[in-house]
Design goal:
Elements (H helix, E strand, L loop, with lengths): L9 H11 L7 E4 L9 H16 L3 E6 L9 H14 L7 E3 L4 H13 L3 E4 L3 H8 L16 H12 L9 E4 L14 E5 L13 E3 L1 H12 L3 E5 L6 H10 L7 E5 L2 E3 L6 H9 L14 H7 L3 H11 L6 E3 L1 H12 L5 E2 L1 E2 L2 E6 L8 E6 L9 E6 L2 E5 L19 E4 L4 E9 L5 E9 L16 E2 L2 E2 L4 E8 L23 E9 L11 E4 L3 E5 L9 E7 L12
Parallel strand pairs: 1-2, 2-3, 8-9, 10-11, 12-25, 14-20, 18-21, 23-27
Antiparallel strand pairs: 4-5, 5-6, 6-7, 13-24, 14-17, 15-16, 17-22, 18-19, 19-20, 23-24, 25-26, 26-27
Length: about 550
């Protein structure tokens, strides 16, 4: 419709206004992670928001590592972040940058502030600086070193750079206002001494800029027009603006804050995940029970499902939480028409068709996806001995149980009607075989209308089935008791991982490659594990069950 009104989020409205008023010609955004851990689902929102805005306005998207803290940063994290962003589809083209690329310019920027008498070297200890800072109700008090001369500050700062002081012995502070109601403006530290080897610059520097000083400089150097960050940086915006103003950058970037993406009952804190990894509770930052982007990818989530999730969450100024069930809804919606529906038996019991000829094999046609004809058909070998799910047979069934029990007839999916004639137990009383007879007139697709059965069960052919390990996941924390205990520790769910070793899948899955995903009939969506699965040694992760508790909100 020509007159259709398109709803614009508040960030788009700001950008529209900046373009209309001539402040901005080309929109430039960036994603600036610190390489001190793996990215999680919350970061995906920021990545897709920044990249999406650049695409929407025909602008540019930069990828930049804010690597100003060598104490926590690793090349491993740099590489994992790059892989995650590429997987999500955000293309930085040839614009991959590091904050450390600009250390020389940041140093000169600090010198410029000293020369303007807007920065000074302070000898107070970290504890004393905290004490002098004041509180939310009390103003801070000035450092006794605040009024050093420009010449002395230049000399001391040069000595800091040249390695003449120990870690923590001296810092460079911005000279702003110790009585400011915003604590971030009370002479914040902008450089500290840290004798650490940096992953990028090695031992070139022994002083490093603080994030709040470095970030606006990086944005200004790269010509970022809109520096989009999360709400906790709102109180830091006056400092961001002070830095770009005092350093006299032309066309200074504009910082805009939006609400973080919070998922209920999940662990995103790097400190907690690091502990889970180190204690061997999970098998790495990409353990499928986590919500790091690498973990979601390994579990079988797709970029499209995460984009759908981020779009459903929307962009706002107020923090809120989203139910994990919404993320599960998105992956179901994405996969249900894309992936083939295969048969897999997770808790097998042998079914023997006594009147089916010994040694005979026939190939039955099966639709790969009844809702998507484009996925075509496949052939499944059918023979005398099959595996079915243990729960599909009961010796003494309750009312309204329509699967196999003595004397009852069911349809084997894609195949024939079979009637249970007898069963065999082992010494412990456990049923190990179910014996049936089949009716050759009832072949699926034959048009047989003689009688109906109420139950249909799935199966795999015993001689051809591929053995597989299947991993069933639940939330790593106990959802009923909450994520954290009173002492701040994680309230772990002891049943977060169930490993089934004796599962069988259709022979068509023999060549399943890492990340290949399927719908297993009646079981859920599953993905070949990227780390452990290979032909001849299949391992499948359950991405999500088939049933959802989530209801998509109705649109107004």
């Amino acid at each position: 419709m020509e007159n259709e009104v398109v709803s614009r989020n508040f960030i788009e409205q700001i950008i529209d206004k900046d373009i209309a008023e001539g402040h901005v010609k080309t929109v430039r955004t960036r994603f600036p992670p610190e390489p001190n851990g793996y990215l999680h689902i919350g970061h995906a929102k920021s990545i897709l928001l920044n990249y999406g805005l650049a695409q929407q306005y025909g602008g540019q998207f930069n990828m930049r590592f804010d690597d100003t803290n060598p104490t926590k940063e690793k090349v491993e994290f740099v590489e994992s972040i790059k892989e995650d962003i590429k997987w999500l589809g955000a293309d930085w083209e040839d614009r991959l940058y590091f904050a450390s690329d600009y250390f020389g310019q940041m140093y000169e920027a600090a010198v410029k502030l000293i020369k303007k008498d807007k920065a000074y070297v302070c000898d107070l200890s970290p504890e004393e600086i905290r004490e002098y800072r004041g509180s939310l109700t009390e103003p801070g008090k000035e450092s006794p070193y605040r009024n050093r001369s420009v010449e002395e500050n230049l000399e001391l700062f040069t000595a800091m750079r040249d390695g003449k002081y120990k870690d923590g012995e001296k810092v460079l502070r911005a000279k702003i206002d110790m009585a400011s109601p915003n604590i971030n403006m009370r002479d914040p530290i902008i450089y500290r001494v840290a004798h650490m080897t940096h992953h990028n610059t090695k031992d070139t520097w022994c002083i490093y800029p603080m994030y709040d000083f470095a970030h606006p400089i990086e944005d200004a150097i790269e010509g970022i027009t809109h520096s989009i960050c999360t709400l906790e940086f709102e109180d830091h915006r006056p400092l961001y603006d002070w830095v770009v103003r005092e350093l006299e950058y032309e066309n200074p970037p504009k910082q805009i804050e939006f609400a973080k993406l919070y998922l209920t009952n999940v662990v995103t804190g790097k400190r907690y995940i690091k502990k889970l990894v180190e204690e061997g509770i999970v098998d790495g930052w990409d353990d499928p029970r986590l919500v790091s982007i690498a973990a979601l990818r390994r579990r079988g989530f797709t970029p499209e499902s995460i984009k759908m999730f981020v779009e459903l969450c929307g962009v706002s100024k107020s923090n809120s939480s989203v139910d994990y069930a919404m993320l599960e809804y998105c992956i179901r919606e994405d996969l249900k028409l894309k992936r083939p529906r295969m048969m897999a038996v997770l808790d097998p019991i042998k079914l023997i068709i006594d009147n089916y000829p010994q040694g005979e094999v026939e190939y039955l046609d099966a639709d790969n996806n009844l809702e998507n004809e484009a996925l075509g058909k496949r052939q499944i070998p059918f023979c005398r001995e099959l595996y079915i799910e243990r729960e599909d047979f009961m010796e003494e069934p309750p009312r309204k149980y329509f699967r196999l029990f003595p004397g009852n007839e069911v349809r084997l999916m894609h195949a024939y009607f079979v009637k249970c004639e007898s069963f065999v137990k082992d010494e412990s009383g456990k049923v190990i075989e179910v014996h049936c007879t089949y009716d050759p007139e009832t072949k699926a697709g034959s048009g047989f209308t003689g009688r109906k059965v109420k139950g249909t069960i799935h199966w795999v052919p015993a001689p051809f089935a591929q053995q597989a390990e299947v991993r069933l996941y639940e939330n790593i924390v106990d959802e009923e008791l909450g994520v954290y205990n009173e002492d701040g520790s994680l309230n772990l769910n002891p049943n977060s991982l169930t490993v089934l070793k004796e599962c069988y899948v259709e022979p068509a899955l023999k060549e399943a490659q890492p990340y290949d995903s399927y719908q297993f009939v009646r079981q859920g969506f599953f993905c070949a594990d990227a780390r452990d699965s290979k032909p001849g040694q299949l391992v499948f992760n359950r991405i999500v069950s088939l049933k959802s508790s989530y209801k998509l909100p109705t649109q107004p």
